[in-house]
Design goal:
Number of helices: 27
Strand content: under 5%
Structural class: mainly alpha
CATH topology of the largest domain: MetI-like fold
Helix content: over 70%
Number of domains: 2
CATH superfamily of the largest domain: MetI-like
Largest sheet: 2 strands, parallel
CATH class of the largest domain: Mainly Alpha
Radius of gyration: 25 Å
Distance between the termini: 40 Å
Strand order of the largest sheet: 1-2
Shape: globular
Length: 567
């Protein structure tokens, strides 16, 4: 009997894994094999000319350097923010914590547009300074510089540090610090010997995660750094699309995959120790108004920096998209010249009479369509994978890490691999770009699995056993017991997959069709073409995409709040 149950478990696991493994095999491992084969590593090794090695080493060195600088400065802002938000209670704290999620989920093209609207040649600060001091040219030239890249990365990833470290800090047992102070330790000694060692796992985990995001950054570097700066990700794009050197692009992709997966493995090892010595029943939070005066000043200073750094670019983007358009203006539109919807109305006008014109508002429909298809691809696959992982079989130990591999690969590499694998097949030649939502699905699938899996693991096993004893078959157990309990995480994972697809830019640059542009592609086109109208349309489209992403986060929060109220 025991043997029969074992065989049933094996066949259930095989049946549940079949479609997800087939999907990954066709659309991830075959493209990955194409990249490896084209690189020639198995035939000739990494035999590159001296010039080719220089073309690889230069962007690789810069990629590591900018990722290190970005990560260190992100920690410098994120750790004080985590301290204030985890230690003090004040009006609006929960609103600030929720709002800090917004920069992290924004697409990179929107982040670039935010800083363009704030610090660009026609941004809010330059226009203000030009108006006050009657200047004829912008006094701040920050865009297309190294520090523009760093600012974009800090803006993009600081919220991650605040959320991860702040959560660990809020659950730390305060009795350890109190005992140290009673035994004679001062604040510095307590922090050095008690607080920092307990926070080390969460700080290391968040640092590695931020470093991985900075290491694989594409849109921020491409749009804020300009042609003088190229990370490995950007160089892959340039070599493949502009230089048409696919072999060198694939070699770079292979190097990036190995390094990214290595970093992901280190992160997985570090994250296992993240909860060390943390006690969830402790919740910090004293009233800020009753704290000592130095702590008040420090906390208010940190909150001011967070507000200025995170909310000013968002405000500048929305404001810049609603400034009036004046044809024939040589210097630019006065930023504070009055609100107008002219840039939004320009989205409906083919001003140059192009025969290949696609109205930008159609990009909104295309992005929503691709995002919807992405959800329909990832959600069934994610549910099948989670149900398969619930089966007690050793095959899960092998297949579970394989599902996470697309998360360790860059979007540019995924797009390049799919293009190499399917550019001569009917799947690529059909008019509709079906490979686009497939690429988005590869990026979103690991997130969907990791959101649903904890929920299904929390379902008591005895519920299914009791139902089976009472005569219910496996389908009725799924329909009447497990699926209702999974409703909330399924909705949340669907919204996350939808948001990921809306803002995906790296793979889309390879697989996009001219007649099916997405919002990020349209924004990129506007930002890379001169003219006030193009600039204004980029701001308008970025605002639309930002609003769509914020609505997605609000849907997640409303779903979570509704679920808590029902409990």
């Amino acid at each position: 009997m025991k043997s029969d149950r074992g065989w049933i478990s094996i066949w259930q696991s095989i049946a549940l894994w079949f479609v997800p493994v087939l999907f990954l095999g066709i659309f991830f491992f075959i493209p990955l094999g194409k990249i490896i084969n084209l690189s020639g590593i198995f035939q000739h090794g990494l035999q590159l000319t001296q010039g080719e090695w220089g073309a690889v080493v230069r962007p690789l060195t810069f990629t590591i350097f900018q990722a290190v600088v970005s990560t260190v400065l992100t920690l410098c802002i994120g750790i004080p923010g985590a301290y204030v938000l985890s230690h003090f209670r004040f009006t609006g704290r929960e609103l600030i914590k929720a709002a800090l999620i917004v920069p992290f989920i924004l697409p990179t093209v929107v982040v670039a547009s935010c800083f363009n609207s704030l610090l660009g040649p026609h941004g809010m600060i330059n226009e203000l300074l030009m108006t006050i001091f009657h200047l004829q040219s912008p006094p701040i030239a920050l865009l297309n510089s190294f520090w523009a890249i760093i600012l974009g990365h800090i803006f993009y990833n600081t919220s991650l540090v605040i959320l991860v470290v702040g959560e660990a800090w809020s659950k730390m047992n305060p009795n350890y610090e109190t005992s140290a102070r009673v035994l004679g330790a001062n604040r510095f000694q307590t922090a050095l010997h008690i607080t920092f060692p307990l926070l080390t796992p969460s700080v290391l985990a968040s640092s590695l995660l931020v470093f991985i995001f900075d290491f694989t950054s594409f849109g921020v570097v491409l749009l804020l750094g300009g042609p003088a700066f190229a990370t490995l990700e950007v160089e892959i794009f340039i070599q493949a699309t502009q230089m048409l050197n696919l072999r060198l692009a694939t070699v770079m992709s292979l190097i990036q995959i190995v390094m990214t997966l290595g970093l992901a493995a280190v992160y997985a090892g570090v994250s296992h120790g993240q909860s060390f010595e943390l006690t969830p029943h402790f919740k910090r939070g004293e009233a800020l108004k009753s704290s000592p005066f130095p702590q008040k000043i420090f906390s208010l200073g940190v909150l001011t920096v967070l507000f200025m750094f995170f909310f000013t670019p968002l405000i500048a983007l929305v404001t810049r998209s609603m400034t009036s358009y004046q044809s024939g203006s040589s210097i630019g539109i006065p930023f504070f010249g009055g609100a107008s919807w002219s840039y939004y109305s320009e989205l409906f006008i083919n001003r140059h009479g192009s025969l290949f014109y696609v109205p930008p508002y159609e990009a909104v429909f295309n992005s929503l369509l691709f995002a919807t298809i992405t959800v329909f691809i990832t959600l069934p696959l994610g549910v099948l994978i989670v149900l398969a992982l619930r089966q007690p079989h050793r095959i899960n130990r092998i297949l579970d890490p394989l599902i996470m591999l697309p998360l360790g690969s860059s979007a540019v590499t995924l797009g390049l691999g799919l293009l190499l694998a399917f550019n001569t097949t009917a799947l690529y030649k059909i008019p509709f770009p079906v490979l686009l939502p497939i690429a988005h699905g590869l990026v979103a699938l690991p997130l969907v699995v990791r959101i649903i899996q904890p929920a299904i693991d929390a379902i008591p096993v005895n519920l299914a056993f009791s139902a089976r004893i009472l005569g219910a078959d496996r389908w009725h157990v799924l329909r009447d017991i497990e699926f209702p309990l999974l409703k909330q995480p399924v909705i949340v994972s669907s919204i996350f997959a939808f948001s990921v697809s809306l803002g995906e830019f790296g793979a889309t640059t390879f697989l996009n069709r001219p007649d099916y542009p997405t919002i990020p592609i349209v924004i990129y086109r506007f930002l890379t073409h001169p003219g006030q109208v193009n600039y204004g349309q980029a701001m308008a489209m970025s605002t639309i995409l930002m609003v769509l992403c914020i609505l997605s986060i609000l849907c997640i929060q409303l779903t979570d709040q509704t679920n808590r109220e029902r409990k």
